[in-house]
Structure formats: C-alpha cells, structure tokens
Amino acid sequence: MKNFNYHTSTKILFGKNKINEIAGEILNYGKHVLITYGQGSVIKSGLLEKVKTILADNDIKVSELGGIQPNPRLESVKKGISICKENDIDFILALGGGSIIDGSKAIAAGVKYEGDVWDFYIRKAKVEDALPIGTVLTLAATGSEMNGGSVVTNDETQEKLPISSESLKPKFSVLDPTLTFSVNKYQTASGVVDIMSHVFEQYFTPDMGTELQDNIAEGILKTCINEGPIALAEPENYQARANLMWASSLALNGLTGTGKMMGDWGTHMIEHEVSAIYDLTHGVGLAILFPNWMKFVLNERNAFKFARLGRNVFGIKEEDEVLAANKTIDAIRAFFSSLDMPAKLSEVNIPEEHFKKMGEKACKFGPIGYFRRLNDVAVTEILELSK
Amino acid sequence: MKNFNYHTSTKILFGKNKINEIAGEILNYGKHVLITYGQGSVIKSGLLEKVKTILADNDIKVSELGGIQPNPRLESVKKGISICKENDIDFILALGGGSIIDGSKAIAAGVKYEGDVWDFYIRKAKVEDALPIGTVLTLAATGSEMNGGSVVTNDETQEKLPISSESLKPKFSVLDPTLTFSVNKYQTASGVVDIMSHVFEQYFTPDMGTELQDNIAEGILKTCINEGPIALAEPENYQARANLMWASSLALNGLTGTGKMMGDWGTHMIEHEVSAIYDLTHGVGLAILFPNWMKFVLNERNAFKFARLGRNVFGIKEEDEVLAANKTIDAIRAFFSSLDMPAKLSEVNIPEEHFKKMGEKACKFGPIGYFRRLNDVAVTEILELSK
Lengths: 387, 387
Prior knowledge:
Two copies of one chain form a homodimer. By secondary structure, chain A is an alpha/beta fold. Chain A has two domains: 11-179, 3-Layer(aba) Sandwich (Rossmann fold); 184-385, Dehydroquinate synthase-like - alpha domain (Dehydroquinate synthase-like, alpha domain, Up-down Bundle). Chain A contains 15 helices and nine strands. In chain A, the strands form two sheets. In chain A, strands 2-9-6-5-3-4 form a six-stranded parallel sheet, sandwiched between helices. In chain A, a hairpin with a 4-residue loop joins strand 7 and strand 8 (159-164). The relative contact order of chain A is 0.11. At the A-B interface, strand 1, strand 2, helix 8 and helix 9 of A face strand 1, strand 2, helix 8 and helix 9 of B.
C-alpha cells in the first residue's frame, strides 16, 4: 500500500427532501448564487423552481446559466465565468449530472484565474483557488459530486480533457434518489456502466497489498450488478436508485483508489477521444470499450486480477487463471448487454475513419494506462477491436 | 435506505513517515499543543521525542499529559482539562490507540464546558464545542481516529459510557502502519476483533435496502480475516498492518452505518459493563461476547442476515438459512479462537458474581440493541452463555 492523503471534504446530504437543507449550507459562503443546469429537465421536473423558492425564502440572490450540454463545452464555461465576474457571484449551485457539475467546476476555477480557463486542461496552469460550489445530483454516474475532477470539451480543437484539484471538491452535494426516478433506461444503464468503469480503472493497477481497497471495490461492483437491473425494470424503486446513487459517489471519491500509485484510466482516455469527435454518451462509450481494453491488456501475469474479480463478483468457479479471466471479461460484456448497452462502435454510428487519429491524440502527452502502458498503436488496436 | 448526512471531515495522512506533515496541520489551529499519551510505549519507541522535535522545529510550544490508561479514566480527563485551561492550549495531539484518543476528546470537550465533563456521558449535557484535536495512531482497533466518538470510564461510579459529537472528530490523523509493528499478538488480535465488531454492530440491523453498505462491510470483514493472521505471524508485515490500520478507520467512520436507522451496539454496551468493573481489554471482551450475542438473538426471521454473512465472507455453502446462520456464528468463534482470543469470561478470571448487576446497568437507560431489543434479563442470559 502506497502512502496517501484522504480527505473527502464534501458533505453529503442523502435522501428524500434533503434539498430543503441547502440554504443553510450556502449561507456559509455568501448571498449570491449562480445556478447552473442543462437542457431543461430540471425545469420540466420542477426542481429549478423548487430550488429558487428555497433560496428566495432565505434571501439568497440568484443568477442562472442553463443550456450546459452533456460533455460540457468550453463556451458554456466561459459564459459562466463572465456571469460570475460581472455579478460578484459567491457560490455556484449545479443542478444536474456530471456534465453540469464538471462545467460548474470549470467556471469556479476560471473565475479566480486571470488567464484562459482552458490553460488548466492543457496543463499550462494549475488550479490554486476556486469559487465554492455545491451540487444537487440528478443522475447517478460520474461521481463528480464528491471529488475534485472536471472534464471539459473544446469543440474548436476537438479535445476533451480532465483536471483535478482539491479546491474543486463540492462543499456539499444533495443526493436525493427520487430525483433520478425520471432518468430513462438508456441513461440509467450508461450511469451504471460509468460507475463500474470508475471502479475498474482503480481496480486494475499493478499495486499489491491493497486488499481492503479491492474488497471495497468488489462490493461496489456487486451493488451495481444487483441494483442496476432493478432500476431499469422499476424506475421508481427507491432502494435501487439509492444504492446506485451512493455507489456513484463512493466509486470515485478516493475510497477504492487510495494507497495505489494511480488508477489506470486508459479506457477513459480512449473514450474521451471518441466522444470529443462524436459526442457519444460517456457510459455507452465505456460499455463498448472496456471489455475490449480488458481483452487487449490481459496476459498470463495479470490474469489473476481478472480471475479474482470474476470469482468474487460474478461467482466464476474456473480454477485456471487465464480461463477464469476470459470468463470474467465475457461476464462483464454479458452484463452490459443485459442493460441494452451496445457492444460495438458501429452500433452507435461511429466509423473507423478516425481511429488512428484518436490513438495519436489519446497519447499526445505520452503512453496512457498504468495496468499496461498503451501507445498510439495499441489504442488504435483497441478501437479496431471495438468497431 | 434511510436519509443521512455523511461528512468524514478528518484528514487522513496515511503511510510511512507521514508524521513529518503534522506541524503544518497543527499550525492551522494554534501554537500551543497538549500532547497526550499512555503508559509510556511512545517514550520507549521514540515516537514522543520525534513528535516533540518536529513541533519544536516549527516553534510550536508543547505541554504533556502521560499516563492515560486503557479504558481512559475520568481523573485523567479532568487533569487534562486543567492543563488546557491553565496553559491556554490551542490543540490536543493524541499519541496512541483508542483509549488515548477517547480521553483526549473528553478533554477537548471539557475545556469548552463550564460544568463537569461527566455531564456529557450521563446525558445531562451535549457537546457543542471542543478544542481541535489530531491523532498519531499506534494501534489499529477502535476507529476513534476518524470519528466523533469517545468512551470514558468513571471509576467512582463503575460506569463506562459513550458520547459522540461532530466537533470531536479529529482534524487529522496520522496512520503510519510501522507504528503498529511493535504491538504484541494479544493486542493485535484484540484490535482485529474490535474492528470486526464495529462492522457487526452496523451490519446486524433490521434495515433493508442497504446493499452497498453491507457489501462494503463484508469487504472490511474479509480484509480482517485475511490480514489479521498475517499480522500475528509476521508483526512487521507492512501490507497486513496497513490493511488493518485503514480497516480500523473505515469500519467506524460512518461508511458502513450510513443509511441505516442506527447500529445495534448491544454487545458493546454489555462489554462496557463488564470492563467497567474488571478492566478487560475491549477487543477480548468482544471476542468472548459477540458469538454469544449472535446465538442469543438468532431466530428464523433474521437468520438470512447471518447466512448472507457466512456465504459472502466465510464461503459457507449451506442452503438452509438457520443452519447456515449457525455455521456462520461457529466460523466467527473459530476465527477468534485462531487468533488465540479467549471464548469464556472465566478464562479471563471474570466470575458470574456481577452478571445480574451488569444486566441492570446495561439497561439503565432502557432496553439496548436494535437488531433485537434486549432487557436486563436478556443481557444477563448472554453473560451466562459467556461464563
């Protein structure tokens, strides 16, 4: 186990009607809030109105930025930064899923920076300070509600890049499972895949001696496999939605990744290249790519880790490590398929045209992945396997 | 899943030599520290000197309170409060295991309270404010390093009582596994039992729909069962010590208990009555009592939860729920015995003389336990089973 610091400073307000507690939390930071949201589902559901009423009742002034897209764009971020600067905003409240939260974090960082906010994403500058943010989560998926990560897409350069900073951790996040009742099957399934992918990225590393983290990782995966199909079949099943929502936060708040050198994140980097060009739903891209990444990186030396996962999570009995590993990968693909997730890029109308370019872009800062290092040729091969 | 707030505000500094980072953390709170410790093992190991050197190098003034006993006594606490008040202490740094930390929390609360600190423990007053504390952990067991709980013993009244408050959560805790290399087999095994007991107390509840919490709980238990025997056989096995140390914190920082109505804690209440009179090592008392509590509360309605534990953690194949439940309890007793933990109170020279009185005292605020409510007669029966 490697040395680590662990500080999950985000306060989680979990459960029905927890939204009623936000005003008290926000007033610790100021009286003028920018509410950010997406394509209007929070208008339709009444959530935006409800939040505005709560804030008005507590004399908190509100500005708004709607229309943030899935895979949040740099333009929205820049618009948000202008609004904050012009209106002396004290606090950003994100209503939505990971894209809204990620975009809001970018705004929060940009407000406190003189230069171009994109500098953070191309590693030209580091986030040192940010406006405080809070979130009201409406989709169980990215875990952004309990960590300091943010991924933003620059349409001009066709780049989708991540940053991470302590100062971008939300001060609080409201996790009310009923707010996810209206999430459709496709998005629910994508969310389940996203959660599981975050666990995989931190589970498949060459680290040894992290029994506890790996056992907890397996517990989160088992939860997804149990509760995911229930949430698809019964969208208003509170317990299933609650388990998935809390799993999304715990999957990427440091819990399963602490004590390891770093996560692998190769598959995420590849998916980012695909969705930078094609605007693919993140979880769908991961569902297509992850089992192929697994097939590609599997070898005799690392088979034991796949086999362990299969035995502990999928009940695979096979004793031979490589055979068990292959069965595990097949079980993961079968589970994703049972959620009606596509298995090939061609199913979501992504041609092989840009595979080589995607491989090169994925490796523009050098080889990716940690469980097994991948160069641009390897990335292109994984994309070929996924076509 | 019940509504909950989750805020693990303690910053964990985990790993070798992390002690070197304490000065920066402490300076956030002040320049005059009370160092608390126990019977002198931190003098022998050189830890106290090392800490004092680090603080001196950073111009942090130090006062000291040594001699805090296992099952920390109210006298030590009162002495600490006096020292803090007389010297305008800004911060308390606890060097040791759960007893030192619990005693230090009591001091921290008492300093900010006009009345008798024991008022908190007899529920006459609530902790509203406390001096900030930090810890350097030397024993993997109680989890006090990452929560707001404190248990103190009043010798005069033969009472050992718990309190819990947000403001008693340590600001930081240093978890350096090498500091537990010198912990002997008996204390190491007691620590493993203590960690597992904390998981049991939160696992055995009547709540439904907490799949995630229960899966994580099972992951922590599996870690204890894997790593405990390794730490006994090889006291300087870093990975085993590291897994146990991090498990101790995660077992009682809210992670497995959130979303449940409350933990059971019946067995802990019973053990507190035994050790209030006999000064028994906490984990040893729990090793004796827990399997007997399980046998006593097991019935046809709740057998499924024991059976689930047995199947997921001990690999029990039995299909009948009650039979599987009994096998699970036997497996737990067998595991504790494999750690050389006693199975009977008579083995630690505790006679049956006070069983009735212990039963009455355990229930002085009413019946205890939540998985199954226990009155004084039931508690006495569990003690009889354990004699």
